[in-house]
Amino acid sequence: MSASVSAPRVGVWLIGARGSVATTVVAGCAALTAGLNPPTGLVTETPAFADSGLPALASLVFGGHDTVDCPLPKRAEALAAGGVLPPGLPKAVEAELTAADREIRPGGPGPGDTRGEEELIATFAADIDDFVRRHGLARAVVVNVASTEPAATGTALPPSSLYAAAALRAGCPYVNFTPSTGLHHPALAAPAAMSGLPYAGRDGKTGQTLLRSVLGPMFAQRALAVRAWSGTNLLGGGDGAALADPDAAAAKNAGKERVLADTLGTVPEGEVHIDDVPVLGDWKTAWDHIAFDGFLGARMILQTTWQGCDSALAAPLILDLARLTARAHERGLTGPLYELGFYFKDPVGEGPAALGEQYAALAGFAERLRESSGGGTDEEPGEER
């Protein structure tokens, strides 16, 4: 499905580059390129995206920022021990993991960091510029996969927004796979609009909310009255620790509530509880309890259980988003890519909320890219959306 391996190389700059998701992205891409595993979960490798001009998986070059110093090969070994990566895969792709690890630069601000916002943004942007220049990349996409931070308050830029500002300064498309503020900070609205860059986000839809975006429309379309919708998440790892902070959990839950509001037309009673269970590591369990009324007021209940591995669910979506956003940049598209709402709880731009409608928009986007890659275009290169 991918383009020729001889095509120009494209960078994927990961914020949180030594975390579980980023490590799975790098190891997974190397495994797929080597033919060690099938592209399960990678939507861009399905027939709907054939010949859409997406960069080849083999053309992707990885780097990023992080505040931790655990090398990617060691991190991959830990993920394999936890059942996230297949046994033996870290050793099989050790060279690719080591190469990516060499391209990870210190993030920030860390404890005792005295640098101001402007210095941090300039440093981060210079790191990205240097990465693109040294590897002779056609372009690079910055993707935030760092742990969730509390919602921003006041005028100060939180770390996610510092990295987003650096992406704009480096002339790179930006994807926010987290619920963190990123480009949503008011101070970045004007720079984002003037940048002429495409961007997408936020908060990747990988589990409980993915299911909600299917079930919500089902209730609405069948005229069933949802009275209450409650949920619980049990998870460990870095996300579990980060979401133990009530403010970070509130930022995460905002996207879950938006899906219900958009698909049901209202937010029913109930809330989602997030519990940090460190022993679960990268695995999570999500329960939903839905109370609804049927014909003549008959009261009924639907309960669901979702058990999955966060990194294995997220990694193929990161590869999809990097390829799609890079191609959009190549085509000269600018602003929010609402067609990528299929991937997010809280998507930017105006688009549908139901998963089926979101997939139709995504498939239409693929067709649009296919037409332009085949010579006939529906717009001139560089034309704004």
Automatic annotation (TrEMBL):
It comes from the Bacteria. InterPro entries: Myo-inos-1-P_Synthase, Myo-inos-1-P_Synthase_GAPDH, NAD(P)-bd_dom_sf. It holds the Pfam family Inos-1-P_synth. Residues 207-311 form the Myo-inositol-1-phosphate synthase GAPDH-like domain. Belongs to the myo-inositol 1-phosphate synthase family. PANTHER family: MYO-INOSITOL-1 PHOSPHATE SYNTHASE. This is Inositol-3-phosphate synthase. It comes from Streptomyces cellulosae.
